[in-house]
Amino acid sequence: MKLTLATSGLLDPSRLSAWSAERRRAIHAAVAKGMAVGGREVREAARAQMRSAFEVRRASFVASLQAKVFDKKPERLPALWVGSRIPWLGIHTQGGTVSGNLLIPLLPGRIGPKRFRQVIDGLMRSGNAFFVEKNGRVLLMAENIRENAAQLGRFKRAERERSGVKRLQRGQEIPIAVLVRRVDLKRRLDLAAGVQRALPALARAIQQELDKV
Question: Which of 129, 178, 119, 123 is nearest to 154 (CA)?
């Protein structure tokens, strides 16, 4: 998504080209410095939007959203990039559909993808993972055995809560995940709104640097 910050005066392209090369370099440097300063406020506004959109458990998730100034092309004014390297974050800004064979953990809370892969790998290595079809759904199941105690802990608690029993029997089958072919995701993160709220502060920071030119 691209947002344009337009202003009159020194940044007007028709007027900018009329300045000397030295003057244009000074303007270019001032805009870059203003973006670096004001970009911090833009970044924090975007991070606040992330905190309101998601249930944040790790500070590194929010910290992944950064602001960076691109100013290496002297013939173009600098640009401020705001984004995250987390690959799946983008789909939450617009919504969409994820297709394929997807395993959705059957837990009341969230489990991280790395931990969930460890659970599945442990069950697969021990041969204690199998699919069954129940009520039109394909479920990944595992038996309650001692060898997989580390992998099954959270899933056993979830099954006890669902069934209302205090203790599961040894060898009892426990649902781990449901296999689905597609997942429709609604838009959750309005990143543009967070950025736009901070644009006045960005414009002020740029103007303060331009006033020094």
Answer: 119
Rounded Cα distance between 68 and 36, Å, is 7
Residue 128 to residue 148: CA distance in whole angstroms: 8
pTM across the whole model: 0.69
Residue 41 to residue 209: CA distance in whole angstroms: 16
Q: State residue 31's pLDDT score.
A: 92
Helix (H) or strand (E) holding 163: helix 149-163
- CA 62, CA 48: separation in Å to the nearest integer? 9
Q: Is the dihedral of CA 37, 87, 92, 47 positive or negative?
A: negative
How are beta strands 79-84 and 96-105 bridged, if at all?
unpaired
Strand partners, 65: 84
Could you say which DSSP state residue 65 is in?
E
Q: Are 148 and 173 in contact (CB under 8 A)?
A: no
pLDDT in tens, 7-61: 555 555 556 665 667 888 888 899 999 999 999 999 999 999 999 998 888 899 9
For residue 71, report the phi and psi dihedrals to the nearest 5 degrees.
Answer: -140, 30
For residues 191-209, b (16+ Cβ closer than 10 Å) or e, as one string?
A: bbebbeebbebbbebbbeb
DSSP 166-184: S-PPTT-EEEEEEEEEEEE
Question: Could you tell me if 56 and 50 are in contact, meaning their C-beta atoms sit under 8 angstroms apart?
Answer: yes
